[in-house]
Amino acid sequence: WKSTLFNLSLSASFAFTLFFINESVAGVLYFRGFSRAQTTAKRLFAPLTFRGRNWDSLLNFLNRPAKAFAIKELRSFFRDSTQWPQLFLICALIVIYLYNFSVLPLDKSPIKTIYLQNVFSFLNMGLAAFVLSAIAARFVFPAVSMESEAFWIILAAPVSIKTFLWIKFFLYYIPLLIISEILIIVSNILLDVTFFIMFLSIITMFCLVPAVIALAVGLGARYPDFKSENPALVATSFGGLLFMLCAFGLIAAVIILEAGPLYYAFMTHVLGRNLSFTQIFWLIISFSTAFIICVFAIFFPMRLGEKYLKKF
To answer: Which residues make Cβ contacts (< 8 Å) with residue 74, sequence separation at least 6?
Structure first.
């Protein structure tokens, strides 16, 4: 046991000696190496350029303070490791969503295919809008809260709260509009719907997307949580729940308003008849009401959020 104890002590002393040498060397070299690593002379990944212009030149139509806010918003989003990786999940969701429409056995149904195609296309508008609402709840609603306790910088900046909110609106509006229209157009192509249903679906989503985005930004500004560091927790707050309920109500109202007149318009087209004056009047009133609701859903929540943030 004496030899065992001697060998164990020798190993321990050697380990402590290595630890002492490591500490001594690190004390001399670590700080200088760390400083050089943090102040590299050249970027590892060069910024994307086209004909000598960076991507931020696309925002030159904005004034300088608004452009600075827009660039800050984009960079903050892609630098946040809890945000941008979920874009891959959205891409997977879109693929699965479209694949489900491609494998629908419509030809085996006892109901005429033309009816099912257009019924599914109409329901597809609501389903795509619900997907849009879920994405907006995850990314758009927490956008204001993600300013965190540095929100005082926004208040001190030479940009009004109104401009601040509308910048967030447009930065999310454009990509989500593209995603929504891709969902609608590709799924309708897979369903082989009529031109009228295709046109109506595109226009309906074009009106619903800004309404849902404005709801998310406006209610996110009305119910902010500047102490939260996790956007997922903000989305599950009372404000997030209220946004989802309002978004679902908005989508349901638009779909219900369009359902009745659309059915008669479709049936008269299939049967080769003409719409009566009453049906045309009903069609105009229903679609006008749906459009007014969407416009109201754009401006009222934004105004509501603006008023609340001005109180800070």
So the answer is: 171
Q: How do residues 68-105 score in pLDDT, each as one tens digit?
A: 777 877 777 777 766 667 777 778 878 887 887 777 76
Under a CB-based contact definition with an 8 Å cutoff, are residues 234 and 228 in contact?
yes
Q: Where are the chain's structural domains?
A: 63-309
Cα three-residue angle 292-163-180, rounded to 5 degrees: 50
**pLDDT, tens digit, 9 for 90 and up, residues 193-238:** 778 788 888 999 999 999 999 999 999 999 988 887 777 788 888 8
What is d(CA 290, CA 292) in angstroms, rounded to the nearest whole number? 5
